[in-house]
Write a structure and sequence with these properties.
Length: about 950
Amino acid sequence: MKKLLSLPPNLVEFFYDIEKADRDEWFCTSDPIGSKLGSGGGTAWLLEACKQHIAPDKDFLEWLREEKRILLHAGGQSRRLPGYAPSGKILTPIPVFRWARGQRLEQNLLSLQLPLYEQIMKKAPASLRTLIASGDVYIRAGQPLQDIPDVDVVCYGLWVDPNLAKNHGVFVSSRSNPDKLDFMLQKPSVEELGKLMQTHLFLMDIGIWLLSDRAVDLLIKRSKKGGELSYYDMYSEFGLTLGEHPRIADEELNGLSVAILPLPGGEFYHYGTSRELISSTLAVQNLVNDQREIMHRKVKPHPAMFVQNADVAYRLTADNSEIWIENSCVGKEWNIHRQTIITGVPTNDWKLNVPSGVCIDVVPLGEAEYVARPYGFNDTFKGVLTEERTIYQGISVREWLSCRKVAVEEIDGAHDLQTARLFPVCSTIEELGLVMRWMISEPELQEGKEIWKRSRRLSADEISAYANLRRLAAQRDSFRVMNWPVLARNYERSVFYQLNLDDAAHEFAIHHLELPDALPLSAPLMTRISDNMFRARVQQFSGKTYTEYERRAFGLMREGLTAAALAKKQQPHLSVYSDQIVWGRSPVRIDLAGGWTDTPPYCLNEGGNVVNIAIELNGQPPLQVYVKPCKEYKIILRSIDLGAIETVTTYEELSDFMQVGSPFSIPKAALVLAGFQPEFSADVYVTLEEQLKAFGSGIEITLLSAIPAGSGLGTSSILASTVLGAVSDFCGLKWDKNEICNRTLILEQLLTTGGGWQDQYGGVLRGVKLLQTHAGMEQSPLVRWLPDYLFTGSEYQKCHLLYYTGITRTAKGILAEIVRSMFLNSTEHLALLGSMKSHAFDLYEAIQRGNFDEMGRLVGKSWKQNQALDSGTNPASVEAIIRQIDDYCLGYKLPGAGGGGYLYMVAKDPEAAVKIRAILTQNPPNSCARFVDMTLSDKGLQVSRS
């Protein structure tokens, strides 16, 4: 998906280097210098410039049809946010949210706003290929996006109060047809909106517009006069031609079909002014006030105070409100008050008094010079310098000049504050400090005035045009590098361990930064786990041995998950007759949505949501366990399907269960958890034989797994639950299904195979259900049962197909890779897992509503999410099978970790199911591939006695 940016002219040259942007993915240009095109004309210019750059010989509409694209308008002079005018507001650094996990220290407005736009474009119909948005806003959707209609123009809006709507564009719709645009208004009065509310609804335009190729073509035509691009506004001109009752008559544009959509759970944060820079950031930080969800424990002297990429020796207090310090050095000899933004200040030893409402900006010029640009917190950089109402540094510019005994005639470009050459170019940091003192608080300082008078001076426009943005970015990087060890040392009061630790580790490695001291045992367990994984990654990036740290991280998580079981010692006792057999049997499960969100450490930090079903194969529960007394005081383990047998006579042999692939790892670990190991037993025995004598018999366990290994149906976890259930009954432990599932999670940790909780709950509990957990070490899912009609109804049952592909893949390697990314707070992985968690609710609702088609499509979306999380989920051999049946399916997926095993398909209808069966029966990928009859289990785990 191509990203097209309209940027300030100077930034176009530097953007790719500063952002490390791929030129194949990004295209940047600026509006022609000296021309005002408006948002409509600017859109046309950006599209045509991109097409000319990429495919000069192609027809425009043909080029437009080739791919989807996102256009961001981020040019402009930034008069009301001067501190980020040279680098463009779109690259404004934004502090890490105190409640979020996986953010990057170097994040900016662009990196925060882009994921929503990409999400919208992925959701949009194929005909909507162009999204247009503004670069100076951060927009969040707190809820999943709704379906996007297939029309010419889709506009997103927010429900707001009329007092806020009056400053923006407004989409008006009839109360009887709220999804269709009736007409659009620009900055209507509160009175006008009040009258409309009797018969209409209105949404505030948030600047996210999707256009069909036809709409784009017409927009470009309207942006041209005499074949040349001219001023055309997308909102006050193009927008007013849209709707059922448009405000501007234009036959072609009036004929475009339009839909307006309220952004679900929408939030709108504007970054257009110095005040909004702080107020919007504060609003985002305060989205979450629940202290349990705020990861660090620092309380700032004042909430409206933001410091990043900076070296600050000055002690900030509660009196310092509305403070923003970024990419700057603020020494202990400074004096700061309130409403101050400090940007770009290099390392210095100045003694500087910054009055309230005054901001400091320093911009590098050329290879060694700096421009001093102080300004006022509320300055708009507009107006003639001779007029009293023109404000600079919060006072009349005439007063400012008069205090410094400077005549207006000495200032070039005095017709507008933006073009006025007020700002001196300094060759040394000492000069910079002196002239800054004279300009902001010491008008009698002769040294400062002399520097100002003899220096070459630039206007605000010229600063943006000539700034050395590479130097500006390099300075920011050097401050950030300096900040990394400080953040790590002060982890209790910083955001360090909630950051993307992969990024952090990379920075520590490439800059050879010293690692902080090892965390004390008193540090929170999850922090200690993250710390070890972070250290492992630093070592790995540095080319050093790292596996010991990784082993510690996984070990600590195992300790946390098994602590409860170790604390609760077991007293097994023989609870059957000498000739009785305990018989446990379980179905397997298919995860329909939310798989992976049940996996530690993600679920421990965020909780998980999974929709899955319990199924029997060929009319039988495929996992079976038999437990019976043995006359000899030993443990005999048998596997019918593997044809294996092992006799255990000592605690050492029983605790040797960590061999992955061993046929009896599961029953050994289950017996340990049941108390047949000193550390898990309430009673003390010297030998296993002694304990079995006290127990009353030996134990014989026979396993039957009538399903191939690597099936993806949760086999190992559910087999473990079946063993635990049968052993519990045999030993009189009285574990209920919840306890059995919880101990399965612990068992898998003991085996070091990892894994989550959804497999065992999926098979142990019957039918169709949504399973939900909250954050914390105690992962006991809340079960929401779902109607089974879409699976058992006569018109639907035949549409559910299960096909064994004959291709296998072990989950342990996949698990380790993804769990590692969870430990490291990978931005992309956490975002994807968050969307998978929300997606489970969508599927839950589709099943609740009895919407079969939607359910099938959402199963298909689950498959796409799994592939995004792990590219190995869909190997070429599986893709070859899918290609044959794709047209007949609503959705399909490989259950579990994927990569092989079973393929679950939801056919469009019974006739499509017949065709799928015929195709794959006639063209099997290998000699083992076959269809297996699946039926919904209405019982789950069953344990009975002979």
